Every structure is written in C-alpha cells, then in structure tokens.
Amino acid sequence: MSIEKCNSIILATMPYRESSILMYLFTRKHGRIHGLAKGIRTSDRRGVPVERGYLIEHMIYFKPHRDLHQVTDCHIREHYPAIRGNLEKTAVRDVLFDLMLGGIKDTDPHPELFDYLRRYLSHLDETACEGSVLLLSLSKILFGLAGHLGFGIDFGRCVACGKGFGETIAVRLTIDRGMLRCRDCPPAQAKTDRLLPGSAAAYFARPEASQSREIPRLTDKESSALLHCACDYCRHHLEIHRRLESLSFIEHLFAASPQPGNGGGDDS
Ligand SMILES: [Zn+2]
Q1: How far, in Å, CA of 261 to CA of 237, rounded?
Q2: For position 42, what pLDDT does the model report?
Q3: Near ion ligand 1, which residues have CB within 5 Å?
Q4: pTM score, two decimals?
Q5: What is the mean pLDDT of residues 98-104?
C-alpha cells in the first residue's frame, strides 16, 4: 500500500452510509479509480461539499489490485462555477464524463489525458454558452479522448487518395475502422459510414489551442449529428454498450431552447 497526495477530477459521486461518499475519480497517476471518502458529509470541520466535476486534491491510500481506495484530506482546487451554474454546460460535461466512466477501465496512468481534460474544463468554464459551439467543441474533445486512448483519427487527409480535404466538401468516416475518406473515394459506402462536413473535419484536424477560434458555422442539426457521430465512435472503440442518458438529455435540452444566432437551415 502507498499513501500519496493526488489531484483528481470527480467523474461521479454516490452517498454512502451516514456521512461518507463513494467517488469515481480520474487521477493523473492511476487513471480511473474508485474511492471512499469517510465522514465527508458531516457539517463539522471534516465536511467538504464535493460534487461531480470538481478538481480536488487529496490523500489516497492506494492498494494495487484493489477496487476501492480510501480518500482523505479532500480540498477543492477548482469547482468550475460557470459549468456548475449552467444547464447546457453541465449537460455537455456529463456526456464527456459518462463516456470516460464507461470507456476507461484501467488504472494505468493517463497524464496527458488528465491535463487535456483539465484544459477542456477550464475552457468550458470560460467559454460563451452557444449551443452549436458547445456541441462542436464537445465532439472535438470526444475524438481527442478516443485518440488519447489509442483510437485516433487522421482528420487531415483521405486514406484512399492521400489528399487533404477542402472545407466545402463532405468527408466520410468509417466508424468501425477509424478511417476518413473523401465522399466518393473507394471503397464504396460501408454500413458504419457517416458523412461529415469538410469544415468540421478541418476543425477537428486543427491543434487543440485553436479550439475556440475558427469554429465552423454549422446548424444545430449538423452539430447534433456530429456529436452523435463522435459518441458512436467512442462507444464502438471504447466498448461502451449501455445507453447514454446524458446524450438523450442534451438532445432534449438543445431542441427545447434554440440559441440565438443558430438554427438557420434547420428544416425540421
Ligand atoms: Zn480521397
């Protein structure tokens, strides 16, 4: 057993007995782990109001090959108030967290993914809340998540003809093979093929730093289709079989409250 100081992002919490909390944590050093914080729900000095989505610093009594690890001395490092206070941002974050909960099954270290996730949460916290932009940047993050876990896609060029994609053409993603092609390049359309706007492929190909700039202007319907595509891609490659409630919720949410400046060309 080792006792370590640790930074973690809380992916999910569950009350346990009178005053304790079970937490699914994504840690920099141990990947996804299951922790028990005893006595944390009390109103005395030991009580810390931890919630899903917080970045915490804590001590962990880590036992390799065990399922549950004891967590003590929790301190909240970031609580991302603008995500917490906004329904759309919370919904976007929850899709990402649900895919991480289903898709990361090991306790191997994922330091780059941890830093990537942290940067995204800060970005989401600071960004303006505009429906289509939130959905597109979430899609980019999900393809990035798949990439960090070994299933990256080259969004830069066609695997059949080797050419780069123009922003105005449609490109074809074969989900089960992780291949991107021009719409009309061989082989013929497969069952898991999805068409993406070329502007979206170009946006996904750009480095992460440009994530808030140059976001293509797509309709809510196109952005929603892209998010579904990214979720299907993650579910296929990360072997997630259960239904994503958070994705259904996001659909309802964005269908119910169209954001100003979007919705043009939506013929539904
Ligand atoms: Zn091609």
Answers
A1: 34
A2: 74
A3: 158, 160-161, 182, 185
A4: 0.90
A5: 94
